[in-house]
Amino acid sequence: MQKETALSAQNIVKYFHDPVDMKVLNGINLDVLKGEFVSIVGKSGCGKSTLLYVLSTMDTDYEGELIINGARATGKSLNDLARLRNESIGFVFQFHYLLPDFTCLKNVMIPALKLGKWSYKEVEERAYEKLKMFGVHEQALKKANKLSGGQQQRVAIARSLINDPAIVMGDEPTGNLDSKNTGIVFDLFQQLSKEYNQTIITVTHDEDFARRSDRIVEMADGSVIN
Amino acid sequence: MKFGVNTEIALTYLFSRKKQTIIAACGVMFGVSMFIFMQSLMKGTNDYFEKQSFATTAHIKVYNENKLADKHILENYYKDGSVKMITNPKMLLQNDGLLNPFGIIKNIKKNPNVTNITPQVSAMVIYNSGSVTLNGTMAGVDIIEEDKMFDMQTNMVEGDFKDLVKVNNGILIGKGIADKLGLHMGDNITVRSGKGASQVMHIVGIFATTIKQIDESKSYSNISQAQNILGKDRSYVTEIKINVKDYNTAPEIAHDIETITGYKAESWVQANEQIKAAFKIRAIILNSVIGVILLVAGFGIYNILNMTIYEKIKEIAILKAQGFTGPAVVSIFLQQAIYIGVLGAIVGLTFGYGITLMVSKIYIGAGTLKYLPMSFYVPHYVESVCFAVLTTVAAGYFPARKASKVDPVTIIRG
Question: Does B321 touch chain A (CB under 8 A)?
Fold first, then answer.
């Protein structure tokens, strides 16, 4: 079966200008198919996180071309990109980054409320389901800053999935989790890619995690070496 | 819960930082209540002084003014078309009464805007009691008409002004005259003018205005008595006083009357230019004070929102990463400013009303002024809310725009 391309990066070059001009990404070409589970690995400072932020459309200061779901993302306005992210990209950060003033449930709901595809009630139900998937549904009505780090990270992952994004990106999504929780997250990512045909791209240091994914992209000094 | 997500986030931020929200709202509240208080005081005082000035001044006064010599007689004499010039022209004394005053009155009465009209004979007089004399002016008036125009009754300290109708040689004197000459109700007073004979008059009433100068010089008598003192006939009238329906239209009506009668018709605006100037100066002072208060309130909101944004910069980055657009972020923070503004305005309205009500009970007790004059004028309340909301929107917009420009990558990557 010929699989469609979910994301295609062509000849991505990026410089850091501060404190001195430095080339961090050196002409990256990367195609990720729909439903593929890709891990990007490499030493610290090789540019893997930088690449992920370019792929996520949040970083627009690069040369080259980025195509997401067949549409060119390069050159779109910031607001269009924001809408694109809202609808089709879920993002998990290294540190959970929940909004501390809101309950966990609200945190998960906010991107969906923003999208406006479902009614408030439906969003609430979906959010609760997602929390249940990660076993944090009992904390749903607690304020986000009252949870442990691991719980918060699981809520954050639930949040990234609320809009059924075509692509889920993670910057060390399991960096703060113990092995049991890492296992849960990994199984879930795998389930998403296999059963729901969602594309997963994660940057990770966890070799075990990377080895079990569909494909490993290894980076060094701003280039893909494998 | 049927709010948009932006509104929900804005409200959550406000509620999670109650103290700051309340402090910011307090700033607006003080702005609004001071605005209302100041405006009420200003309008109250202005209204009072305006009313006060109408207590002694008619809307329009028609009188004969001395004229500067002009060349029209010369032109009638030398009808040769040459250019006439008068060097150093002098004022010409007019017969200081009005010609055919009752004809003029009849004529002016046809104007539908005129509500009251009454003739008056003004005389410069000297009051005399025993060996003491006092200069002053006596107004020969139709006291019933005078009361309709100037509300004589409120100023009466002793006696009844209507007695002037019954007692032909009656006189109403100011309290200052009574004090200085040691006179009481029922006493006699000798009144002399420069030209006429002296008259002994019977005091039927004593009045007091808030203006000391008037109380120490002014008296009212019947028209005929004033004419007697001046040695003039019964058709002698020095001025005609007119009240109109809306005193703001007085200048235009005065202009009409001037063209019709040919006499000088002076509106209260011209007669009270110093009052108008005082109104303007007060307005400038109070408006700048109000402006400063609102500015300070605005800076308060600006500061608090700015701090909020520094504190929440990571959360803003997260929201943007999750697909919140720039305008959505502006909306979140601008809404916070607006809610603070509206909350402050509502509390400020009641607070402002309360202060105004309280202050209006402060006893002054000078002349006819019993309590501090405060007005309860609805447009002030509407204006204050508009100003408050405008200020908060302006103060909130700049921090909100800054928040919308947060670059999620730099923040999240650290």
Answer: yes
